[in-house]
Every structure is written in structure tokens, then in C-alpha cells.
Design a protein that fits this description.
Largest sheet of chain A: 3 strands, antiparallel
GO biological process, one term (chain B): cell division
Number of domains of chain A: 2
Largest sheet of chain B: 6 strands, mixed
Largest interface: A-B, 20 and 25 residues
InterPro entries (chain B): CDC45 (IPR003874)
Subcellular location (chain B): Nucleus
Radius of gyration of chain B: 26 Å
Family (chain B): Belongs to the CDC45 family.
Radius of gyration of chain A: 25 Å
Oligomer: heterodimer
Number of helices of chain B: 23
Shape of chain A: elongated
GO molecular function (chain B): chromatin binding; DNA replication origin binding; single-stranded DNA binding
Chain lengths: ~200, ~575
């Protein structure tokens, strides 16, 4: 049946809930585009036939193929757009450097889009909040305290905080650090917030 | 140098700085660490907490952090060794040491700049006076340039001087050298007496709590932690009973102060709030989380009084239970499920019957904490749970992992971990009881002359548990008490005990531990630290003196024989 491939693309994206980004399904898109091309060509021939020879019984099939084309277009557009939304959320979650596993799942154009998005977010952040700009990706929820206690889950090596001092993050050491420096590392799983 | 005003000289100095905390793995240190951490959270002092298991760990941790930190706080480590020589720090590093190990090394006491000791000076320290140990170089007219206390004779003077002086000068020099030799001999004697016995002072958690109290930042949580710290010292037999009673009295004052602050007729506290109460409770280990029967069987006091490893002992236990009128079915049930009528007067009933069976001290002064309807813990329960977590050998985790888990279990929000610790503690106590029973029954304790000796073989069940110092200490003390009850030999009753257990089968090492002889009025002073060092030196055995307690060492299996022989000759 027509349009099944494109619905499968949608289903694949729907299955990976929670903002995860599956690999870019180049194959799937290519197949859908081929299907669209085939339908279009069939429609072209039929339209020409209908016009020249006046075969009005071809009209329903032309209409049917046209609606299939529209459906495929809508599915692909939804697929691409949803992926872009997920990629945008990744910037807020992971920061400007994405883990390599996620980068493999994006196609070249998506990377391009991501870089553009990063740039425009950075420009915006620089423009607000006075001279130095304001990092709005920090403190997504109002913080309860300036400093938090964190525990190191794996050896991360040296870590520099704002006043230049360097802290050695070794496994099982606990530190009391400013909240904003730790958030990145907590998201990456290097540190764990200790609530006592 | 001793710190006189702990607030000004310690806290106000570090409050604006970043601090590195090195904490040793015992419960008292964990509690002191928790108190200090909450103070730091209050004042937003940035710190890094590193658990250190021994001297090597301390050295490595120091090397890693010395670039970034200027102020170091050491909890329950570092006072009994010349710290500056061991760590070789820079000129500007400052160490704050809050340690219960005594005697405090004289270099640490008399160093004015880099070492600050957070130790209460009324602790009966007996530090020798400065002039007895250190000698000013300028007193030497000859300008020999000797370091204080060096034994070398005076260096040869240039021959020019000798010509100028005549026999008077020669006599004076001989006189001076004789005086110096006498001084040095006296110094050696003084130092030997001072450093011979190792013992423990006031709990570090109590010191930290008093710091919090002085700053009016003390909370009930901190008070509870300091209670646990003091109780840990008593459970692991580090302090004599009198000192424990005195410390409990101090804590009791704080507890009543906290309780009266909040309790009022109109504003009584909600049942979920933490409430610490002073209890004159039974000496049965974990009895409220276990069945009464199990607790009686596995507590060292009752087990040794009844001699539960023998059949007579079992009979006596049954008599005891019958005397109290407690049905066996009730007694074997979980304590929480026992009949309310039995639980009501349980303590008094047990005390009465215990007196008949010559157990005069079945009750001991301690504290309990209540929060919510379900949660009630005695201080000793928490100590056993935390110790079991700290030395957990069930999963193959590093000591730092266990340290973190034990640290977590002290917070009220981690009750599951505390319950897990209680379960592990039950297993540990059962293992100890069984090992003691088998050792007594198979006469594994041998008298070597100046001490008793027991060696746990590799195939012994649960022997992995005893590769850790705290568990081995408990086993040792229990075993010594049991031995005293079961032996008829009068002379053996005043002997100390040395115990060896396999540590690492592949490397072929054993852990060796010595405890002082058991007596009613023992002051818990342990001379095995120095004895082990000397014995190891004289036989050049391959030993590792890594633990902060000098009476615990690691030794290679093959060197065991000659090491013991050396000890016997040393101590005879």
C-alpha cells in the first residue's frame, strides 16, 4: 500500500520517546522519495493521457495518487521537523558540545542547522544581561542554594572553577562547589548531587 | 601546636578559604566529618572530601591536592606521626588535625606554624616539656651545628682554636659533652615513656560538635552525630568506661538543652521531628531490630557471662529466660512483634534477673533517637550498622565506595541504607559469635608467654569479614573476654591478645592486631604499636604499617614465625 513507508518513519520516531534522537533514517527517506517520484511520474503520464484523449475515468486514480503524494510530503515534513525540535532540546540539555553518539545520529544538514541554532542562541545570550551576557541555559529551575554538594562518580581529572582554582575530580571524592559550575557535569553523569 | 580558641584559630581562618578534608575510615571520623560538613554548608565554605584508608592513601591524596589547597583538615589521622616529615608539604600549607590517636607526636605539638591540633588540652596528654626534648643550638659554644637531639659527638674543631685554648677548655668541653649525653639519655627515656602506649582521647565528633555549639550553629542532627561518635569509641573499646560516662554526661546536658528548647505544652513537636532521649538501656546489641533471643546470644557481655559456647551455658540461658517469665516463643520473635505486656517492663525485668546471674552491668547509659512512628534507633545500633557498611566485604567494592555508603547511612533521609547496615551487622555479629565459639572449643588460643595468640586459618567460615580492622578488633575483644571466662589459668587472665587473620590469599598476607589485657579498670593503653615496629625491624619481616592505629599491621605469611619469636623475646 502506498504511504506505508512514511508512516513507518513516523512510528519509529514515536517509539523513541523522551526526546531521544534515533539515527537519521536515510534509507527510509530515500524510499519514500522514490515512491513519491514514481507516483508523480505515473500521475504525469495519466494527466497527459486524460488531457489528450479525454479519458475521464483516469481522474479518480490521479486524485488518489495526488493525495498519496500529499500524505508522503506531510509525513516527511513532520519527521524532519520533529527531529529538529529534538535536536534543539539537546542544546539545552547537553550544552554546545554534543556527545559523539548523538552526533552520529544526525545527518549533515541537521548538524548545519544545529550549528546555526547554537550561533543564534549565543548571539541572543550575549545581547541580554549587560556586558557579559547572560547564560540562560543555566538554572532551568530556581536554585535553592549557591553551592551544592556533589560526589564524583568517575575520574574526570582536573576541573577549573571561576576564580581560577583547579579541583581534582577523583572517584568517590566529595566536593562543595558553586552550583552553576556543576550542572554541566551532573548532566554528563560525572558528578552526582548529594542530598543529605 | 594546640589550638586554644577553636573558633578563632580554626573556623574563622578557613571560612573564607577552600579546604581539603582527609577523613579516616572509622565511625567517629565519619560523624565528625558530617558535623563539619553541615557547618561548611551553612557558611558556604568550599571543600573537597577525600576518604583516606591509611598512611599511603593520605600521602597520595596529599600529593594530588597540594597544588590546589592551602588548608587541610585531617580527621582521626595524622596526630601520632611527624606529619611534616611524612608529607613534606610546602611552607604555606596549614594542617588542622582533629585526631583521637594519642600520644600526639612531639614535633606536631611544638610546631607553631604549620600544624594546628584541634584537641582539647584537658585530655591528660602528658606531653613532655619543650626543654626536655629540644635543645637550642646556640647553647653550643663550639658551634657544632648539631640538630637538636642528634647523637653524634661534637665535630672536630679546627686545629687553630685548639692551640689557643688550654686544658681548661678541654675540661669544659668534656664536661659539656657528658652533660649532653646525659640529656640525650634522659630525652630518649622521656620519649620512650611518652610514646610507648597508644590510646585514644576525646571523640573527634564531640570536638566538632562543641565547635558548632560555640558558634550557636548546633542542631539536633549534629548532636546525634556526636552521640554516635562517642558511642563508637565505647563500642570498639577505645576509651575506658569512666571517660565514656563523662562524655555521656556532657552530651546529656546538650540533649536536655535541645529538648527543652522546643517542647512546650502548647507547641509540642510533631511526631516526625527528631527527638533524642537519654536512655539507661540494655547492653544487648541491636535488640530492638532483632529478636531478644538472638540479641542475647550474640552480645559479647551476655554470651561471655553465660558461656554460651558450652552446653551448660545454653542451659543457663534457658534458666535465665525462665526466671524472667518470658515464653520462648515470644523471645524468639522479632522484637517489634513481641507482646506489649512483655515489652513494657522489659528493662527492669531483665536487670533484676541479670543481677541474679551475676551480670551487674546489663544496663548502660546511652541515647536513642525517635523520628516518625516506626523509626527508633539506639546509638549503638547506628554504630554497628555504619561499621558493617564501612567494612562490607560482600560486594567487591573499594574502601572508598564503602566509606561513601557508610557516610550516607548517617543521614536521616537514607533509612534503607541504615536498615541494610543493620542486616549486615547482624550477620557480622553472628559470624563473630560462631568464630569465638569455635576458637574456644577447639582451643585455638595459645599462650606464647608474654601474650596470647590466635591465628584464624583460611578455611574458617566468614574469615573474609575479619580481614578488616574494625571487625577484627571486635572479634579480638570478644574472644579475649570469652577466654577469660573459660580458662582456669590465673596467669593467662592478665595477658594481652594478638590475633592474625588472612588478609589477601594471593599475596599471602595476614592482618595482625594486638589488644591490651582485659580488666575492669583497664585504661585501654596499647603497647603493641611500638612492639610490632621493633619486632619487624629486628627480624626484617615484610610488614606494612599502613593503618592509622599502630597496633594493626599487615604481614607476610612466611614471616609470621620469626616475627612472633621476635615479639616474644621483646616482651618477655
Amino acid at each position: 500500500m502506498f504511504c506505508e513507508k512514511s508512516v513507518e518513519l513516523i512510528r519509529e520516531l514515536h517509539r523513541m520517546g523522551d526526546g531521544q534522537l534515533p539515527a537519521f533514517n536515510e534509507d527510509g527517506i530515500r524510499q519514500v522519495l522514490e515512491e513519491m517520484k514514481a507516483l508523480y511520474e505515473q500521475n504525469q503520464t495519466d494527466v497527459n493521457e486524460a488531457k489528450t484523449e479525454g479519458k475521464s475515468e483516469l481522474i479518480p486514480s490521479i486524485k488518489f495518487r495526488h493525495s498519496c503524494l500529499l500524505r508522503n510530503q506531510r509525513c516527511i515534513a513532520a519527521y524532519l521537523y520533529d527531529r529538529l525540535l529534538r535536536i534543539r532540546a539537546l542544546r539545552w540539555e547537553y550544552g554546545s558540545v554534543l556527545p559523539t553518539t548523538i552526533r552520529f545520529h544526525m545527518c549533515a544538514e541537521e548538524m548545519e542547522w544545529f550549528n546555526q541554532y547554537k550561533k543564534s542562541l549565543a548571539t541572543y545570550m550575549r545581547s541580554i544581561g549587560g556586558e557579559e551576557g547572560l547564560d540562560i541555559t543555566q538554572d532551568m529551575k530556581p536554585p535553592k542554594s549557591l553551592y551544592i554538594e556533589v560526589r564524583c562518580l568517575k575520574d574526570h581529572g582536573e576541573f577549573e572553577i571561576d576564580d581560577g582554582t583547579v579541583i581534582l575530580l577523583k572517584k568517590n571524592s566529595q566536593h562543595f562547589l558553586p552550583r552553576w559550575k556543576c550542572e554541566q557535569l551532573i548532566r554528563q553523569g560525572v558528578l552526582e548531587h548529594v542530598i543529605s | 601546636m594546640f589550638v586554644t580558641d577553636i573558633r578563632k584559630e580554626f573556623y574563622d581562618v578557613v571560612v573564607n578559604q577552600r579546604v581539603a578534608l582527609f577523613v579516616s575510615p572509622d565511625i567517629d571520623a565519619l560523624c565528625a566529618c558530617k558535623v563539619l560538613q553541615s557547618l561548611f554548608h551553612c557558611d558556604q565554605v568550599q571543600y573537597t572530601l577525600v576518604p583516606v584508608a591509611g598512611w599511603q592513601d593520605l600521602g597520595t591524596a596529599f600529593m594530588e591536592h597540594k597544588e590546589q589547597y592551602q588548608y587541610f583538615v585531617l580527621i582521626n589521622c595524622g596526630a601520632n606521626v611527624d606529619l611534616l616529615e611524612t608529607l613534606q608539604p610546602e611552607e604555606d600549607s596549614v594542617f588542622f588535625i582533629c585526631d583521637t590517636h594519642r600520644p600526639v607526636d612531639v614535633v606536631n605539638v611544638y610546631n607553631d606554624t604549620q600544624i594546628k591540633l584541634l584537641i582539647k588540652q584537658d585530655d591528660d596528654l602528658g606531653v613532655p616539656s619543650y626543654d626536655d626534648i629540644f635543645r637550642d643550638d646556640e647553647e653550643d659554644e663550639e658551634g657544632d651545628g648539631n640538630d637538636s637531639g642528634n647523637e653524634s659527638d661534637g665535630s672536630a674543631e679546627p686545629s687553630g682554636k685548639r692551640r689557643r685554648y688550654d686544658e681548661d677548655a678541654l675540661e669544659r668541653r668534656i664536661e659539656r659533652q657528658r652533660a649532653r649525653r646525659e640529656w640525650e639519655a634522659r630525652r630518649r627515656e622521656i620519649l620512650f615513656d611518652y610514646e610507648q602506649y597508644e590510646f585514644h582521647g576525646t571523640s573527634a565528633a564531640l570536638v566538632m560538635f562543641e565547635l558548632a555549639w560555640v558558634m550557636s550553629k548546633d542542631t539536633k542532627d549534629m548532636l546525634w552525630w556526636s552521640v554516635i561518635g562517642v558511642t563508637d569509641q565505647w563500642v570498639h573499646d577505645k576509651i575506658p568506661h569512666m571517660k565514656y560516662v563523662t562524655d555521656i554526661a556532657t552530651l546529656q546536658r546538650h540533649v536536655s538543652r535541645h529538648n527543652h528548647r522546643n517542647e512546650d505544652e502548647e507547641n509540642s513537636l510533631s511526631i516526625d521531628c527528631m527527638r533524642i532521649t537519654f536512655e539507661y538501656d540494655l547492653r544487648l546489641v541491636l535488640y530492638q531490630h532483632w529478636s531478644l533471643y538472638e540479641s542475647i546470644c550474640n552480645s559479647s557481655y551476655t554470651s561471655c557471662s553465660f558461656k554460651l559456647w558450652s552446653i551448660n551455658g545454653q542451659k543457663k540461658l534457658q534458666e535465665f529466660l525462665a526466671d524472667m517469665g518470658l515464653p520462648l516463643k515470644q523471645v524468639r520473635q522479632k522484637f517489634n512483634c513481641m507482646d506489649m505486656t512483655i515489652k513494657e517492663n522489659l528493662r527492669e525485668v531483665i536487670e533484676e534477673s541479670a543481677n541474679k546471674f551475676s551480670m551487674k552491668d546489663i544496663r548502660v547509659q546511652t541515647f536513642a533517637v525517635n523520628f516518625g512512628f516506626k523509626n527508633r534507633f539506639l546509638a549503638s545500633d547506628v554504630v554497628h550498622a555504619a561499621a558493617a557498611l564501612l567494612e562490607n566485604v560482600e560486594k567487591d567494592e573499594t574502601s572508598a565506595d564503602n566509606f561513601i555508603k557508610a557516610l550516607d547511612c548517617l543521614s536521616r533521609s537514607n533509612l534503607e541504607r541504615l536498615h541494610l547496615g543493620i542486616d549486615l551487622a547482624k550477620k557480622k555479629l553472628k559470624a563473630i559469635q560462631q568464630t569465638v565459639a569455635s576458637c574456644i572449643c577447639t582451643n585455638l588460643i595459645l599462650s606464647q608467654g608474654p601474650f596470647l595468640y590466635c591465628h584464624l586459618l583460611e578455611g574458617t567460615p566468614d574469615v573474609k569479614l575479619f580481614s578488616k580492622p574494625l571487625a577484627l578488633t571486635l572479634l579480638c575483644k570478644y574472644l579475649l573476654k570469652a577466654f577469660l571466662c573459660s580458662t582456669r589459668n590465673k596467669r593467662c587472665k592478665i595477658l594481652p591478645l594478638i590475633m592474625a587473620a588472612p588478609l589477601d590469599v594471593e599475596k599471602g598476607t595476614v592482618i595482625v592486631l594486638g589488644i591490651p589485657p582485659e580488666s575492669e579498670t583497664s585504661d585501654k593503653k596499647n603497647f603493641f604499636g611500638r612492639a610490632f615496629e621493633k619486632a619487624a625491624e629486628s627480624t626484617s619481616s615484610r610488614t606494612l604499617h599502613d593503618h592509622f592505629d599502630t597496633s594493626v599491621i599487615e604481614l607476610k605469611m612466611e614471616d609470621r614465625g620469626k616475627f612472633l619469636d621476635a615479639l616474644i623475646t621483646l616482651l618477655s
